[in-house]
């Protein structure tokens, strides 16, 4: 697909974290309350390094500390000036769209217009029994609640009826925002139905590419653009597309891979045991780092791999999930600094014809 010089300068770069529960450098577990404070420090570091976006995921389990991303982001907002602050993702299916909009509209006011929401159905399901939702309604919950969230973006009276929550009759969500509507992205794992749904609502698309060669997602980017034009007119402006992928940056390829592997494996194997995946081997890890969706290495290596992905898919944003399992806080801070000060500018240079 490719990008021209103007598009290369418009590509933006983000960092994502789920607030993974870390260890100290000598292997002692860090309590969740300290992990939360560390995530705030990481968001501040991202702003200082010139990163465009900092996004925090929502989970309700013991290996991730963040269950309320908007609260964490508000703490970061008070100490930063320019970085966009968002969720990655808000599990909309088990939340209320009105409260989601109001919480992030509040964050938008606190941050001076820097809030955004990324919503998704969620690849973890702990929130469903926790908040009293039936997994049998997994698809219907997201479909209806996304529809309501989109309507709330008008910041005017909303009349809405569905079967998954009480109806609204000319009700409004508060506060309003300076920009008049919050940015809402939809996180998609790569199903055609999810891509078309996002296009139908006219929302930006965030592709979660967490395994395999990124090039295999090119058909989804093409489908998104085609669906947007078919649904909204041939001259419609197609909203941006982003990529969310795991990775890690250190001074050298060897350092990055050796530092990351045991922690990446610990995280992946714990989730894999729940989902029936075999344990990750070093060969599996190296294959993902060489050709797959794991963007790990020196600044030069990571920049080249991101540039290849942006060029191949024609996307406008790249978000690196930089935190993995118990990987210690000090290594995460260094990775954040390298990503913002070296990877992002080198990637832009590589993309400029």
- As a whole number of angstroms, the C-alpha radius of gyration is 20 Å
Proportion of residues in extended strands: 15-25%
Structural class: alpha/beta
Total number of helical segments?
Answer: 12
Order of helices and strands: HEHEHEEHEHHEEEHEHEHHEHEH
Lateral arrangement of strands in the main beta sheet: 1-2-3-5-8-9-10-12
Q: Residue ranges: pLDDT <50 for 5 or more in a row? A: none
Give structural notes.
By secondary structure, the chain is α/β, with parallel strands linked by helices. The chain has helices at 5-10, 32-48, 69-77, 97-111, 127-130, 138-152, 192-201, 218-232, 253-275, 282-291, 299-313, 329-351; strands at 12-17, 53-56, 84-87, 90-91, 115-120, 158-160, 168-171, 184-188, 205-208, 241-249, 295-297, 317-321. It has an 8-stranded parallel β-barrel, surrounded by 8 helices. The protein has a two-stranded antiparallel sheet with strand order 6-7.
């Amino acid at each position: 697909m490719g990008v021209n010089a103007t598009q290369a300068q418009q590509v933006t770069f983000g960092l994502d974290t789920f607030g993974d529960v870390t260890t100290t450098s000598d292997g002692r577990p860090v309590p969740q309350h300290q992990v939360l404070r560390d995530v705030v420090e990481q968001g501040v570091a991202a702003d200082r390094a010139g990163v465009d976006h900092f996004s925090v995921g929502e989970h309700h389990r013991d290996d991730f500390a963040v269950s309320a991303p908007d609260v964490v982001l508000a703490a970061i907002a008070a100490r930063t000036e320019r970085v966009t602050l968002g969720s990655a993702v808000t599990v909309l299916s088990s939340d209320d769209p009105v409260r989601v909009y109001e919480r992030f509209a509040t964050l938008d006011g606190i941050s001076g217009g820097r809030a955004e929401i990324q919503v998704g159905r969620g690849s973890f399901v702990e929130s469903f029994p926790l908040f009293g939702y039936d997994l049998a309604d997994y698809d219907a919950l997201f479909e209806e609640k996304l529809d309501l969230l989109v309507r709330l973006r008008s910041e005017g009276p909303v009349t809405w009826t569905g079967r998954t929550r009480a109806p609204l009759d000319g009700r409004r969500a508060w506060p309003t925002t300076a920009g008049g509507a919050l940015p809402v992205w939809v996180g998609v794992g790569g199903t055609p139905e999810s891509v078309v749904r996002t296009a139908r609502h006219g929302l930006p698309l965030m592709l979660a590419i967490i395994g395999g060669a990124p090039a295999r997602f090119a058909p989804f980017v093409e489908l998104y653009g085609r669906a947007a034009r078919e649904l909204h007119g041939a001259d419609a402006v197609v909203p941006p597309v982003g990529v969310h992928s795991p990775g890690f940056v250190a001074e050298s390829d060897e350092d990055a891979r050796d530092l990351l592997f045991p922690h990446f494996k610990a995280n992946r194997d714990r989730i894999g045991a729940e989902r029936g995946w075999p344990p990750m081997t070093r060969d599996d890890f190296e294959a993902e780092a060489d050709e797959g969706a794991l963007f790990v290495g020196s600044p030069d290596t990571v920049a080249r791999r991101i540039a290849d992905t942006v060029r191949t898919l024609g996307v406008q944003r790249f978000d690196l999930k930089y935190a993995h399992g118990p990987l210690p806080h000090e290594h995460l801070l260094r990775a954040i600094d390298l990503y913002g000060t070296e990877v992002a500018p080198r990637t832009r240079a590589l993309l400029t014809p």
